[in-house]
Amino acid sequence: MHQDIERTLFSEAEIAHAVSGLGDRIDAHFGATQLCVLAVLKGSCVFLADLIRRLPQSLELQFAQASSYRDGTHSGELEFSFFPSEADLVGRDILIVDDILDTGRTMARIVARCEDAGASSVRTCVLLDKPARRQVEMDADWKAFKIEDLFVVGYGLDFAGRYRNLPYIGCLRAEIVAAGPDGHGTPHASPGEETAHA
Ligand code: IMP
Ligand code: MG
To answer: Is it the case that residue 129 has pLDDT exceeding 60?
Structure first.
């Protein structure tokens, strides 16, 4: 796995330092508020585990999973394979946690669904922000790192379902990306445009 990485963007130590700083800022904002943390699977799982252990306030966890289909048939529609019920969100102070803000479409939809469900407040937190890729107006309240328009893996982020368990964040070697999701050169537009992501 490590041999597929061209370069490290953020080391384990840099990530740990940044996540700890995020925890402090989020704690300072919410104080004693009883939080509902809504994590977006699967990419946020490693970040989530580290972040919530830096939050001293009482909190509950909820999970959502979204997939986007970017082929001709679905033209980028988002589908949720699961999402908390309205009863779990109404009147709650929600902190949405995702791995990366890319086009912004996933986060924008989740924020809207929480507001529609009657959340009392909705805030957002991401590990990475790729502002150059934004397609909708969306910014996160808290983010650890801004990056250029690069496809990254590790610390929860995947390419074709793999590399989530890398402890650092890095870029894949070009030949791994060119070999495609099945490793056999099946054509695909770009790593960010696989049929479905999570
Ligand atoms: P958005 O709706 O385009 O903002 O999509 C965000 C989702 O796309 C993230 O939660 C990731 O699952 C996936 N994604 C976007 N960029 C990357 C990347 O560089 N590496 C891995 N996954 C990515
Ligand atoms: Mg994701």
So the answer is: yes
Residues within 6 Å of ligand 1 by CB = 40, 43, 98-107, 151-153, 157-158, 192, 197-198
Beta strands in 130-166 (DSSP E): 142-146, 152-153
Atom in ligand 1 nearest the alpha carbon of residue 150: 19
The answer to whether 107 and 124 are in contact (CB under 8 A) is: yes
Instruction: Please enumerate in sequence order all residues whose Cβ is within 8 A of that of 121, keeping only pairs 6 or more positions apart, or say none.
Output: 93, 94
* Domains located in the chain, CATH noted: 12-148 (3.40.50.2020)
DSSP letter for 165, please: T
Q: How far apart are CA 108 and CA 91, in angstroms?
A: 19
| Token pair listed for 3 | 């041999």
pLDDT at 143 over 60: yes
pTM of the full structure: 0.91
**180: confidence class by pLDDT, cuts 50, 70, 90:** confident
Q: What separation in Å is there between the alpha carbon of 159 and the centre of ligand 1?
A: 10
* Ligand 1, atom 9: closest residue by C-alpha: 100
Cα(130) to centroid of ligand 2, in Å? 13
Indicate if the alpha-carbon torsion angle 51, 164, 170, 97 is positive or negative: negative
